[in-house]
């Protein structure tokens, strides 16, 4: 009696769930559904294009995808081509692994001006995600403000200031590469509403900012405390001490021959985006940190900038027919159990935090719960899903199709780049016709 599982979303949390189901040794059939033809979610569309080593984790996911018990259903939009209700009828378990594809909103006056982007859109644009191919941010500007001091903020800053040589071995989308190379950008400002100790970036990512060919990291030494104080766990204390040491090292970076600067501006809470229709500047309020919270001082300053990227965290989209907690941007669940036969993993379960590996335990938990909860199956599974989609003329992109698309991307690569990404769905499908 085969247990039929449909996983919606082919990012890390979806693949770790599939892998855990396979490793259980139980009789399972796993269908991984994704609205894009391309698998791997944020590995392809979120991880920075110059972090190719990180993207190699997709090789492990490929092994899972090629397992005979697994079928990849790319180019299938749950909600449009098939509903969750239908999947609950065809499969014993439905796993929501849909991530957090949109942005938290800045929520300050002027945040709707032309030239303000959320990081999900901006990162999607430079990574060639089909949803953001036409974003067209105007990089004909000398300075950019990035709000937030997390890893996504660092990624966006780095992609904007790296030289063509530093980006040669990346798979940045061609449109983004051209725009960045043509840009007269000299200054990127990163704003943290709290201090350097509270910043969310991790040390490996921070350290990279001190090793850039043509960019100097700039920090006001007066914003760096003597030591890390506060009520941190031992691990956090160590990580924060490392970050502080790295920021101190930035003060020593030789400024010669560096044409660009990334300014780390701490204790600065953006309060207004300035300009008429388009962004012309950002007004920030100086802050103090008390009890871990940013408190406004009533003192303000402004910087000129032509673009604002809000890298303040991602947000999940409510799913029709599934209970959703709007405040926290996650589905309502009990340790991943959402409703009978419906489970959640990854960012739709936990919110947008953690690294790729954080999704592994989620997958293990979901697989265990599914196998505990379901001990007999009456569902038709894959066959019925295939029939439903065939009736609706949906062009399913299976894993072999994706491999053809990938082969075409690799064949089109220029120079040392690993691939030249297709940035719209028609071009991907054209490879298959
Ligand atoms: P994040 O780590 O939560 O950082 C968000 C940043 O935005 C924080 O500095 C936060 O400040 C700030 N912020 C939030 N709301 C704000 C507001 N209204 N006004 C001003 N600032 C605000 O989120 P993320 O950078 O999007 O990253 C998401 C997850 O992906 C993280 O777990 C990250 O580590 C992971 N990631 C990892 C890598 C990597 O390993 N290389 C790369 C990219 C992403 P407060 O702290 O004051 O709230």
Write a structural description.
The chain is built from 15 helices and 19 strands. The radius of gyration is 23 Å and the shape is globular. The protein is an alpha/beta fold and 433 residues long. The protein folds into 2 domains: 3-101 and 316-432, Rossmann fold (3-Layer(aba) Sandwich); 102-314, FAD/NAD(P)-binding domain (3-Layer(bba) Sandwich), CATH 3.50.50. Helices cover 31% and strands 21% of the residues. Bound molecules: NADP nicotinamide-adenine-dinucleotide phosphate. The site of NADP nicotinamide-adenine-dinucleotide phosphate (NAP) has 24 residues, from helix 7.
Coarse shape? globular
Biggest β-sheet: strands ordered side by side in the sheet: 3-2-1-4-19-18
Secondary structure: helix percent: 25-40%
Could you say what the CATH architecture of the largest domain is?
3-Layer(aba) Sandwich
Question: What's the alpha carbon Rg, rounded to whole Å?
Answer: 23 Å
Total individual domains: 2
Give the C-level CATH assignment of the largest domain. Answer: Alpha Beta
Return the CATH topology of the largest domain: Rossmann fold
């Amino acid at each position: 009696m085969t247990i039929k599982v449909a996983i919606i979303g082919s990012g890390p949390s979806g693949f770790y769930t599939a892998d855990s189901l396979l490793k259980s040794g139980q009789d399972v059939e796993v269908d991984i559904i994704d609205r894009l033809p391309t698998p791997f979610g944020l590995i392809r569309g979120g991880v920075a294009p110059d972090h190719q080593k990180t993207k190699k984790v997709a090789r492990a996911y490929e092994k899972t995808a090629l397992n005979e018990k697994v079928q990849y259903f790319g180019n299938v939009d749950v909600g449009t081509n098939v509903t969750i209700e239908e999947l609950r009828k065809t499969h014993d378990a439905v796993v929501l692994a849909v991530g957090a594809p949109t942005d938290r909103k800045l929520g300050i006056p002027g945040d709707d001006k032309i030239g303000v982007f959320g990081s999900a859109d901006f990162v999607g644009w430079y990574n060639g995600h089909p949803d953001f191919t036409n974003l067209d941010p105007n990089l004909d500007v000398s300075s950019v403000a990035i709000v937030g001091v997390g890893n996504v903020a660092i990624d966006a800053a780095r992609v904007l200031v790296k030289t063509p040589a530093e980006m040669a071995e990346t798979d940045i989308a061609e449109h983004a590469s051209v725009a960045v190379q043509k840009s007269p950008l000299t200054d990127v400002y990163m704003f943290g509403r709290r201090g350097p100790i509270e910043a969310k970036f991790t040390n490996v990512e921070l350290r990279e900012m001190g090793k850039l060919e043509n960019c100097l990291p700039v920090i006001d030494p007066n914003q760096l405390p003597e030591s890390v104080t506060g009520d941190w766990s031992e691990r956090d204390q160590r990580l924060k001490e490392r970050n502080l040491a790295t920021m101190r090292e930035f003060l020593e970076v030789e400024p010669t021959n560096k044409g660009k600067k990334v300014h780390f501006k701490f204790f600065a809470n953006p309060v207004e985006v300035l300009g008429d229709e388009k962004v012309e500047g950002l007004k920030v309020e100086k802050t103090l940190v008390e009890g871990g919270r940013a408190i406004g001082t009533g003192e303000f300053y402004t910087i000129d900038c032509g673009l604002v990227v809000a890298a303040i965290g991602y947000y999940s989209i409510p799913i029709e027919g599934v209970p959703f907690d709007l405040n926290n941007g996650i589905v309502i669940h009990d340790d991943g159990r959402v409703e009978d036969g419906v489970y959640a993993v990854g960012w739709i379960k936990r919110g947008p935090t953690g690294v790729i590996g954080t999704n592994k335990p989620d997958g293990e938990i979901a697989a265990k719960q599914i196998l505990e909860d379901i001990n007999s199956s009456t569902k038709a599974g894959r066959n019925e899903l295939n029939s439903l989609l065939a009736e609706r003329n949906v062009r399913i992109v299976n894993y072999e199709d994706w491999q053809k698309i990938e082969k075409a991307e690799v064949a089109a690569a220029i120079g040392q780049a690993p691939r030249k990404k297709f940035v719209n769905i028609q071009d991907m499908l054209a490879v298959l016709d």
